[in-house]
Amino acid sequence: MTSCACEINACVLCEARLYPGLTAEQVCRIRNMLIRETYHAGDVLFWEADAATFLFALRDGQVKLIRSLSDGRQQIMRLSIAGQILGTEAFNDKTYNRTATALTEVNTCKIRYQDLLQVIEQNPAVSLRVIQALTHELMQAETLIRDLGLKTAPEKVATFVLTLLPPCDNQTVEVPLLLSRREMAEMLGLTEETVSRVMAEFHRKKIIETGKGTIRLLHHALLRSLAGHESSMPQAGNRNSQSVN
Amino acid sequence: MTSCACEINACVLCEARLYPGLTAEQVCRIRNMLIRETYHAGDVLFWEADAATFLFALRDGQVKLIRSLSDGRQQIMRLSIAGQILGTEAFNDKTYNRTATALTEVNTCKIRYQDLLQVIEQNPAVSLRVIQALTHELMQAETLIRDLGLKTAPEKVATFVLTLLPPCDNQTVEVPLLLSRREMAEMLGLTEETVSRVMAEFHRKKIIETGKGTIRLLHHALLRSLAGHESSMPQAGNRNSQSVN
DNA sequence: CGCCACTTTGAGTAGTGTCAATGCTGGTGG
DNA sequence: CCACCAGCATTGACACTACTCAAAGTGGCG
């Protein structure tokens, strides 16, 4: 039996071999479908509009996903981290809809779509994991939609800085910042000058300090309040979801 | 055998009974999990932050999905039409993340999450359909992200008007418009006044005419060019997606 | 008829974008 | 070693888009 291309739990695809319903033969077949690759910072995993043949699972590192307009304007869709899957668009389309660029050294497992369909056919646990990964991506995407549509420049920047923290963390002070001002702007629907000015303003107010490649958070609470309160449905309204049958 | 709650092909869930691998008994069990409901325009299918127990399949009609900030600002995530599924967020979370409101008379099939997990377990064809539906939602969401982040007010409005058309249609002249100016604004990250002004400007330029509840498109080509060109990756760049192994 | 929600239009302004100049840093090559 | 260069970040001056506030018009419905 050949060794599995991919060993860690963070890889969605690899969980195929953990599913109890599979025979040794099936496990072996799945292992052989996986292709492991390494990319350097700046390398492109796949290009928008290219033919989509592989689905990628990120094992390690960080990747940015962008879409662009023909005049060169480009928008960062999200930053992808270990455990997430990339290239899911090909479940419906024949081409990638985003360009995926490595921000750091990156390790991936990839699998051909047609192979993946086989795995899904045989292995409901894998499809559930894929469904959960997609749902998570979708929620992240919709959070960005809300922020792009509703928030002001300072709110957007504060929100972004907070996403650099592990969730529910009020301790951490210094976090790495992999994006340039331009990339932050491309993510937040702003210009690099505006991002720079807002960051300078936060610095003046002693909310953050900026080193090269890192940000120090000096005042979590204030930053959170600047980020704009996160929903929780204020409107009492008439909550009658009448169903007629 | 009880009759199926839901007959039309547009319902993702109902395709369960089309899957050839199921026994008559299994089909019967799945049928009994489905609950059919009707809502009137303005009714709420589910509220943001409520406990998520059901997944909905839209059989008929149109629904808007919104998320809000605690100060009342709200953003329309997307408009959902027949054949799409709603409430997918509960695959990961325990609560809905959006409020779903009927824009028209709406027919749905709904199913409990725990029941759906059983169906997926037994029926790979259903999970594939769910995966494709989620991927489609995600692509739609990312198109909105791009437009919110990159486009100007006139580009946004033009883009929105074009989405009212069936895809690749250069013929249709009159299309229904279910959204108010306020709702269009909530979808495009603008104010209702700005939307109104842009629409008036388009009218003056004889690109559209606005009746109540409908829009007449007088100049498809111009509208498309105003909408901003749709990607297609202009940058030649060095397309070396080096992989190191 | 009068009320209410929706839409349109105007005037003034705040917030971002644009353009341009400067400074900083790291890398390259003489 | 230093000079030079390219990319990134910062800052300023200015322009302009889109927002705010306000008023008036429109249409449906009790």
Descriptive notes:
In chain A, the strands form three sheets. Chain A has a four-stranded antiparallel β-sheet with strand order 1-8-3-6. Chain A has a four-stranded antiparallel β-sheet with strand order 2-7-4-5. The relative contact order of chain A is 0.13. Chain A has seven helices and eleven strands. Chain A has helices spanning about 25-35, 115-120, 125-150, 155-165, 180-190, 190-205, 220-225, and strands at about 35-40, 45, 55-60, 65-70, 75-80, 85, 100, 105-110, 175, 210, 215. Helix content of chain A is about 35%, strand content about 20%. With about 240 residues, chain A is an alpha+beta fold. Chains A and B meet through β1, β2, β5, α2 and α3 of A and β1, β2, β5, α2 and α3 of B. Chain A binds a DNA duplex (30 and 30 nucleotides) through α6.
Summarize the entry for a quick read.
The structure is a homodimer of 245-residue chains. The first copy, chain A, is of the alpha+beta class and 245 residues long. Chain A contains seven helices and eleven strands.
Summarize the helices and strands and which ones pair or pack:
2 copies of one chain form a homodimer.
Chain A lengths: L23 H10 L1 E5 L4 E3 L7 E7 L2 E6 L5 E7 L4 E2 L12 E4 L3 E7 H10 L1 H27 L2 H11 L10 E3 L4 H8 L3 H13 L3 E4 L2 E4 L2 H7 L19
Antiparallel strand pairs in A: 1-8, 2-7, 3-6, 3-8, 4-5, 4-7, 9-11, 10-11
Chain A binds a DNA duplex (30 and 30 nucleotides) through helix 6.
**Runs of chain A with pLDDT <50, length 5+?**
232-245
- Please tally the helical runs of chain A, counting DSSP H or I stretches of 4 or more residues: 7
Mean pLDDT of chain A: 84
Instruction: Outline the biggest β-sheet of chain A.
Output: 4 strands, antiparallel
Order of helices and strands of chain A: HEEEEEEEEHHHEHHEEH
Tell me, briefly, the overall form of chain A.
Answer: elongated
The radius of gyration over CA of chain A amounts to: 21 Å
Task: Report the end-to-end length of chain A measured between terminal Cα atoms.
Answer: 57 Å
Give the oligomer, counting copies of the same chain as homo and different chains as hetero: homodimer
Q: Order of strands across the biggest sheet of chain A?
A: 1-8-3-6
Strand content of chain A: 15-25%
Structural class of chain A: alpha+beta
The greatest interface here is: A-B, 75 and 75 residues
Share of residues in helices of chain A: 25-40%
The number of E-state strands of chain A comes to: 11
